[in-house]
């Protein structure tokens, strides 16, 4: 079954990164629903290394503020939710639950380079699933990478041992876009049929 044009527009063609937000809140129930969709996106060996910290309060965003690049401060302070998309470097400790039909934990526990690469790659995939699922639920997204990762890790993730990857502001964006959509590469510039 293919998605119709309206769904494809919502997810990709008409969707825009948002930098300004309405005051409409995003409920904890919607965030739960969001994760309950994201968790079904594929990852290698069902590793699911992504971890998400949902900053919902003004106090949490103020705590984040010193780690943001100047150009990301205003849009983050006014977003209803900012998600720290992170990954667990020790994701493989969950593999006996997530991949019970093989000893997948052993593939990674003695190979830190493979574990790091797998955690980062698959955690990034899950962050992309988060953006698509949020759009499917009627939320707008403002993904960004302009922040001090070490500071975010220290402020929000050190207790869990997680590492930050990127941030995503969530909410209901204002209708006006600051500028026209930037160009994209054509098929023959980005693809090879072999």
UniProtKB/TrEMBL annotation:
Residues 18-172 form the Nitroreductase domain. The keyword Oxidoreductase applies. Pfam families: Nitroreductase (PF00881). GO terms for molecular function: oxidoreductase activity. It is an enzyme of class 1 (oxidoreductase). Its EC number is 1.-.-.-. CDD domains: RutE-like. Its cofactor is FMN. Keywords: Flavoprotein, FMN, NAD, NADP, Oxidoreductase. InterPro entries: Nitroreductase (IPR029479), Nitroreductase-like (IPR000415), Nitroreductase_HadB/RutE (IPR050461), RutE-like (IPR023936). The keyword Flavoprotein applies. NCBIfam families: PRK05365.1. Belongs to the nitroreductase family. HadB/RutE subfamily. This is Putative NADH dehydrogenase/NAD(P)H nitroreductase SIL87_07555. It comes from Acidiphilium acidophilum.
